[in-house]
Amino acid sequence: MRRWTEPSASDRRRAAAVAAAATERRMVLRSEPCPRRALAAAAEAGGYSHATLSRAIGREDGYVGRFIRDGCPLALNPAEHQQLADFLGLPPARLGIRDLWRAAA
C-alpha cells in the first residue's frame, strides 16, 4: 500500500495552472450563447418546429429536436449552423456557433 505524501511545490503550481485554465475556458464559453438554448429560442420566436429546422439542413425530422433536447450530437457541424442561421435570418453568432480555434483573450 502506497502512503500519501504532501504534494510538492511544483505539483501545487501545476494544479493551480490547470484550475486557472479551466476557469478561463468556462468564462469564455459563458460569454457566448449556448447553441442549444439559442437555437430553441430562435425556433420558438420564428414559429418553426424542430422538424422544419431538421428538414432545412437535410436531416431527418427528429435531428434538431434530439440536438436541443438530448444533446446528441454534441455539436452541429459549421455548415449546418450556417444553413440554420441563413434559414432563420440570423447571424451564426446568435445561434451560439463558436470559433473553437480563436485564442481566448
State the gist of this model.
The protein has 5 helices and no strands.
Question: Can you describe this structure?
Answer:
The chain has 105 residues and is an all-alpha fold. The chain has a domain at 35-95: 434 Repressor (Amino-terminal Domain) (Orthogonal Bundle). The protein is 57% helix and 0% strand. It has five helices and no strands. The chain is elongated, with a radius of gyration of 20 Å. The chain starts with 8 loop residues before the first helix and ends in a 17-residue tail after the last helix.
Shape: elongated
Can you tell me the CATH class of the domain at 35-95?
Mainly Alpha
Q: How much is the average pLDDT?
A: 81
Q: Count the strands?
A: 0
Name a few traits of the molecule.
mainly alpha; elongated
Task: Set down the secondary structure blueprint.
Elements (H helix, E strand, L loop, with lengths): L8 H22 L4 H12 L3 H7 L6 H8 L7 H11 L17
